[in-house]
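Try this one yourself first.
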């Protein structure tokens, strides 16, 4: 995956903005004061806040809050790109989701954002041969966030998983940078095939709600997958596919549809008599 492009100055601005937003939240909604204080204002930086948030969400009798928090902080310290990617994801949500008006909103409330960051910790565990703990965390993420992302999958930065319910991403799937997907998307296999068996999603791809992309297929850069489609073959770059099974319906009017979030089917007007 490419390294995040947000600058250190932008990183500092995001954290400062989050703190200011949370101070305003507390002033206006006292019942959330303890929650907001404990996951943002009590911490010296973004990484500590993220570890605290995830530990509160994912704690269990088997994985107590403080133990998980130590794991998350270890991962964030050992691999700074995890925190960088988490900021990139935050910016992606705020830029692409018209319902989001503050950096603090996805951080505090959006399960798509939170589940993706939990995956990043699980992926770090998987890479460091703590695979049973990574798989336990995968199961816990599925229970809490309704997202099932295998910790071995490789996912870039600047990712928007909007609504996020019933997201499935398989073990050998690869997702590039600046990808947007909606709820009920599956990046899955086609059966009992072993080995490299899951989709490869290039940068800038937009995947509509309910789309199923199955098998070791490649979705080219800047492609658009229509809602409800079933994709079983490669999709060329900057094209739009839709249907069951999915077929080309035109070329994308945008070079990066994931950033525009326009789910209309390019070329559909030209197919009319």
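Now uncover the answer:
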């Amino acid at each position: 995956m490419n390294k995040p492009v947000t600058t250190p100055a932008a990183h500092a601005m995001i954290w400062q903005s989050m703190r200011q937003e949370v101070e305003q939240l507390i002033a206006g909604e006292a019942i959330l004061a303890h929650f907001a204080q404990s996951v943002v204002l009590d911490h010296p930086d973004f990484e500590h806040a993220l570890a605290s948030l995830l530990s509160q969400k994912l704690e269990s009798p088997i994985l107590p809050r403080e133990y998980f928090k130590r794991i998350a902080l270890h991962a964030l310290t050992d691999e700074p790109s995890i925190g960088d990617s988490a900021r990139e994801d935050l910016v992606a949500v705020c830029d692409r989701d018209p319902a989001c008006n503050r950096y603090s909103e996805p951080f505090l409330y959006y399960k798509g954002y939170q589940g993706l960051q939990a995956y990043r910790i699980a992926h770090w565990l998987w890479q460091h041969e703590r695979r049973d703990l990574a798989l336990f965390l995968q199961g816990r993420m599925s229970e809490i966030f309704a997202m099932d992302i295998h910790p071995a999958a490789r996912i870039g930065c600047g990712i928007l998983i909007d609504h996020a319910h019933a997201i499935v991403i398989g073990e050998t799937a690869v997702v590039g940078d600046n990808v947007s997907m909606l709820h009920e998307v599956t990046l899955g296999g086609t059966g009992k095939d072993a080995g490299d068996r899951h989709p490869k999603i290039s940068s800038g791809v937009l995947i509509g709600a309910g789309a199923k992309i199955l098998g070791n297929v490649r979705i080219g850069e800047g492609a658009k997958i229509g809602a409800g489609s079933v994709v079983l073959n490669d999709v060329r770059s900057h094209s739009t596919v839709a249907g069951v099974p999915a077929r080309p319906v035109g070329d994308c009017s945008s070079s990066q549809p994931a950033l525009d979030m326009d789910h209309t089917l390019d070329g559909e007007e030209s197919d009319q008599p």
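Discussion: Residues 269-273 have pLDDT under 50 and may be disordered. Residues 111 and 145 are 6 Å apart (CA to CA).
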